[in-house]
Amino acid sequence: MMRLCRLLLLLGWLGIQSTFFLAEKFYSYHNRFNQLVFSNHRPPAADANDVKEMEIQRDQPYLLQFDEDRYNRFDELILKHSQRSGVDFNLVKSMILVESNFNPKAVSPKGAQGLMQLIPDTATRFNVGDVFDPDENIRGGCDYLKYLIELFEGDLELVLSSYNAGENLVKRIQRIPDYRETRNYVAKIIQIYGRTRTSLEPFTILTPGSKFFKYVDENGVITLSNIDPPKGAKPVR
Asked: Is 216 left (phi over 0), alpha (psi -120 to 50) or beta?
């Protein structure tokens, strides 16, 4: 019987703590149908491109378990405010996953709040009255992202560094600050989003970071994909 590994997204953030007993490896890649796949099994070389191996370490307290319903529940609001602001839907969704794991009541030890973890000064600056209201929080977060994207001309490393560590510091040094938390934060969002640059141009929603399907493929591998499962795929029991 195939061992059912707990499939986890390796993301280290403030405010979300879980404990797991074993280190696990999983892989992200594009299969021969150009589907984005997350799996606990290494894919055959002939069937996969851009394979990335990730490992969940014992000493990483900030781990998230994939939850499809939780992951997609705010899509309508994200779409509304990403289209209004011009910020890529997938970037916003990747950031919410990293920032709060889609918990609208999340509060970090440093006082960041809500889905997009707005600090009080940023919430006031972008006219967010209730940071725990998903609609207001996502609106304020998108407006701030739009400002940062324009400020740093789409350089995502600088945009994300500013969101995490403060724009004044990043404007002064013009690079990712030498903070472990910020470096990890930037690397993990870019890994999920799949790009190092962004813009305020029209974007496509159906890219990695929108919606995933979980199923068992023809080889018995538990698969997460952003494209509808192929015929014959079996649901995970």
From this structure: beta
> What are the residue numbers of the active site?
99
Tokens of 94: 């990747």
Residue type, 129: G
Fold of 78-193: Lysozyme (1.10.530)
Residue type at 2 in one-letter notation: M
Q: Burial letters for 112-145: b for 16+ Cβ neighbours within 10 Å, e otherwise?
A: bbbbbbbeeebbeebebeebebbbbbbbbbbbbb
pTM of the entire predicted model: 0.61
Q: Mind listing the pLDDT tens digit for each residue in 177-220?
A: 999 999 999 998 888 777 777 766 554 443 333 445 566 666 66
* Adjacent-strand bridge partners of 48: 31
Pinpoint the residues of the chain covered by CATH 1.10.530.10: 78-193
